[in-house]
Every structure is written in C-alpha cells, then in structure tokens.
Design brief:
Elements (H helix, E strand, L loop, with lengths): L9 H7 L11 H13 L12 E5 L2 E4 L4 E4 L2 H4 L8 H13 L11 H12 L7 E6 L2 H16 L3 E5 L8 H6 L4 H4 L9 E4 L10 H14 L6 E6 L15 H12 L2 E5 L23 E4 L10 E6 L18 H39 L3 E7 L2 E6 L10 H13 L2 E2 L1 E3 L3 E4 L7 H19 L1
Parallel strand pairs: 3-13, 5-6, 5-7, 7-8, 8-9
Antiparallel strand pairs: 1-2, 2-3, 4-10, 9-10, 11-12, 12-15, 14-15
Helix pairs in contact: 4-11, 5-11, 11-13, 12-13
The protein binds pyridoxal-5'-phosphate.
Pyridoxal-5'-phosphate binds next to α6.
C-alpha cells in the first residue's frame, strides 16, 4: 500500500523525527497554559499529563514548547485519518467557503444527504437504514435510546458493566465504566439494568453471560418491557475488552426471541478502527441500531445514529438538533470515509496486527503485561501485579503513561489497568516502532 506519511516534504520530514523533545515536557509555555486553563476551565476533565498541543500532522503532534510527540491516542480514537489529513483539510476549507451552517432541522442541504446515502450504503444491519445526525457520541446514544423507546413503546434498557456510552443523562444511565462518572448525578434514568460484560481474560464466558441475561429477564426486567440491549462490540473506555466468539450471536438470538432491539455502540470501535468499517462486522450479527461518532469526521464534531429504516417511524418534530450534521462535519466525514475505503482500513489491519504481535512478544520479557488483545488498531495491553492473581496494576499503568509522555509518546489508558493503542489509522510500521521502543523502555524502567 502507498506510503502514508510523505517524508519528502519539510513537514513530513519533521514529523518523521518525532519524538523530538526540546525541553522536558510540560515545558514553560505549556505550564503557563495549564495555569490559565486551571483558572478558567471546568475541573471535571481528566488530563493524564500536561500536553498542550499546538499543531498536528499524521501521527505527530507538536506542543506549545516545540516538542514533537508520537501520538498513538489520536485525540481519544478520533483522528482516524491522522492529524490534519490534507484531503480532510481541503474538504473542510472548501465547504467552509461555501456554507458553514443552515440547520438540517429546518432546511435541506446536499452534504447531509450525500453522507446519509454513503452511510446507509455501509449499513451493517438487515434491510435498509436511515440516519439521524447529532454532534457527539452521547447524542447518537440519546437518539437511539429515544427511538428504541418510541418505536417499541417499551421503557427499559439492558446495558453492561464496564460500558461507556457518554455523559448526558440518558447515556450516563447506560454508562457503567467508572463510579466517578455517576457519583453525585443520581437518580439517573430508571429501568436500566447492567449485566457483567464477558471478559475472556477474566473467565467471562458466553454461557455465564447468557444465564445472567436470562435471570435478569426472569426476575428484574420483563422482556416485553425491554426496548433495547445497548452494547459496545469491543468495550472501549472499559478496557478494550472483546467478548468471546459467539457471544454476540447468542445475545442477538435472545433479542430476536423477545422483540428487543440490538443497539450497538460503535462510537469508539467503528469507522475502520478494527480493520472493518464496523466492529460488529467481525460477528455475523445484524444490529437494529448503530451509534457512530469519534472517528467518523476525523475530528469535526459529528454523531450519527444509523437505524433500520422501518424503526425510524418517529414524526416530524419528535427529535432534532440545530447543529447535528453540520455541512462542514458532513464533508469531513465523506472525505474520511473515502480515505478509510482507499487504504486506511487495510492499514489498520496490517499495522494493527504488527503492533499487536510486538506487544505480545513483549509479554515474554515483561511479566507486568497480563494480556494483549484487540482488533486492527484498537489494541489493549492489560497490566497486572502478577499473572496468577491477575491483580490489576492500576498505579503502574498510570505511571507508565506519564513516563511515556515525558519521553515523547502520547498514549492513554482505558479501564482500570489497561493501556490503549488507538493511533491514527495512517500509522506505518516505522512510526509504530518508534512508539513501541519508547513503551518498551518505559516498561523496563518501571516494571523491570
Ligand atoms: N460511546 C462510546 C463507546 C465512547 O467511547 C464514547 C466516548 O468515549 C461515547 C459513547 C461518548 O461520546 P462523546 O464523548 O462524543 O459524547
């Protein structure tokens, strides 16, 4: 496949040098911004370390002190096509010069319709699909929750512990990732029951999970009252956990039996990240609703609910969003999808397999890595205190992430003790090697 970073340009050559640290990060300018941020910005955000980013290209970002970092976080699994991909930038610039906003709530415009045609052509469910536009993952989830309730007339939902679906009230009612995200905000939406998510590394099996689901349907949530089961194909914030093979098919069968809708949250796992357009396509299951956001528009705010066409039976005025499906975001999404289809999904499979293989081989030397798992460029390395007890090495995970930053690698955690590899899908082996080298050095330094 074609080289993804053009090292012949000045910018490309600069990017190829990352990491390139001029001062120990956070440097003096970064510290000053962080001070100003603390004075004016909500303290509810969780910054793992002090990276103050000024510009980005591909898998490289530069901070305000001129330090170049290798970025395998992609702005939390968002910058699918890399930072500022020229084709995405051009699509944004062209659209911005023609029409910035009109509101799909009251008006029609081509970019919304063209994107809907593209997305529905990719629909992983049965039959045909329709699109609802919002601005974020949480909004896509809210739309799906409302539509599921509206269409079925049923009030309840089933979700999974460890799942993350956003922080608005409806979405937060499904989210069960970290207690701090719920603390102080209750009561949340009633009628949500959470089940254990089957984690094969921690003895999760399809059998146990199904028996818990049946038990809940028998004792707490009468199936004829359940509108939807809401689930991530791979738990993202929960720790990059992949359920056992066959589990989705078993859950889908229960849904079918009871007329429960299967609502798949692809906000993190979708848009090519796992090597297929949607992670649910690694199974044979046909979802009824799919939530998309994050990678869909390479960083422009866009959330999409894709739903089976016959489910979208709500009336004009039932649900809408002023900004949802903004023309610029739609053009960025169209450019993104074109890039995904013309090589980036393939690259996710190829380089993802390479990174995973290298992380797996680190397990020979480093006892602290308990498990490596993932699909495409959605890879988790779970850190444990020892492999027998599988006790979660939370502090070590957090310390490693900070140390990687100090050495020029932007990487994030997920779940209590997992390190997530979610680089832009343009990453090549050479860049991956530079990131892996830092990671391995830090692991050796901190965990032996
Ligand atoms: N669903 C999943 C699987 C996510 O990972 C996230 C965000 O991390 C969301 C929903 C919420 O998306 P947003 O932060 O855009 O509201």
């Amino acid at each position: 496949m074609a080289q993804l970073t053009d090292t012949t340009t000045k910018k490309g050559a600069e990017a190829a040098k990352a990491p390139d640290l001029r001062v120990a990060p956070p440097g003096p300018k970064a510290k000053d911004w962080i001070r100003r941020d603390a004075a004016t910005i909500s303290p509810s955000y969780t910054r793992s370390y002090g990276s103050v980013i000024e510009r980005g290209e591909g898998c490289t970002v530069w901070d305000v002190d001129g330090n170049a970092f290798v970025d395998v976080s992609a702005g939390i699994a968002v910058c699918a096509t890399g930072h500022c991909h020229p084709k995405v930038v051009k699509a944004i610039q062209d659209q911005a010069a023609r029409l910035i906003h009109m509101s799909g709530t009251d008006f029609y415009y081509p970019s919304q319709i063209e994107l809907a045609e593209k997305l529905t052509s990719l629909w992983p469910g049965a039959g045909s699909a329709k699109v609802f536009y919002g601005n974020s993952g949480a909004e896509a989830i809210e739309a799906g929750m409302k539509l599921a309730r509206y269409h079925t007339g049923r009030p309840r939902y089933i979700a999974f512990r460890g799942g993350f679906h956003g922080r608005t009230f409806g979405a937060l009612s499904l989210t069960a990732s970290k207690a701090i995200q719920r603390k102080g905000f209750g009561p949340l939406l009633s009628g949500v029951t959470h089940l254990a998510f089957p984690d094969p590394y921690r003895d999760g099996t399809t059998e146990k999970s199904l028996s818990e689901l049946e038990h809940v349907l028998d004792t707490i949530a009468p199936p004829e009252e359940v509108a939807a089961i809401v689930v991530e194909p791979i738990q993202g914030e929960g720790g990059y956990v992949i359920p056992p093979d066959g589990w989705f098919e078993a859950i889908a069968e229960v849904c079918k039996r009871h007329g429960i809708l299967l609502f798949v949250d692809e906000v993190q796992s979708g848009m090519g990240r796992t090597g297929k357009m949607f992670a649910i396509e690694h199974t044979s299951v046909k979802p009824d609703l799919v939530a998309l956001a994050k990678g869909i528009a390479s960083g422009m705010p866009l959330g999409v609910l894709l739903a089976r066409g016959d489910l979208m039976d709500w009336e004009p005025g039932a649900h809408a969003s002023t900004f949802g499906g903004n023309p610029i975001a739609c053009r960025a999404a169209l450019a993104t999808i074109e890039l995904l289809e013309s090589g980036l999904m393939e690259n996710a499979r190829e380089v993802g397999g390479y990174i995973r293989g290298r992380l797996e081989s680190l397990m020979d030397e480093h006892e602290a890595i308990g498990d490596v798992r993932g699909r495409g460029l959605m890879i988790g390395a779970e850190l444990v205190e020892d492999r027998q007890t599988k006790k979660r090495a939370k502090k070590l995970r957090n310390d490693i992430i900070v140390r990687c930053f100090e050495k020029g690698l932007l990487i994030l955690g997920c779940g209590p003790n997992t390190i997530r590899w979610a680089p832009p899908l343009v990453i090549d082996r050479e860049t991956a090697d530079r990131a892996l080298e830092i990671f391995e050095n830090v692991l050796t330094e901190m965990a032996g």
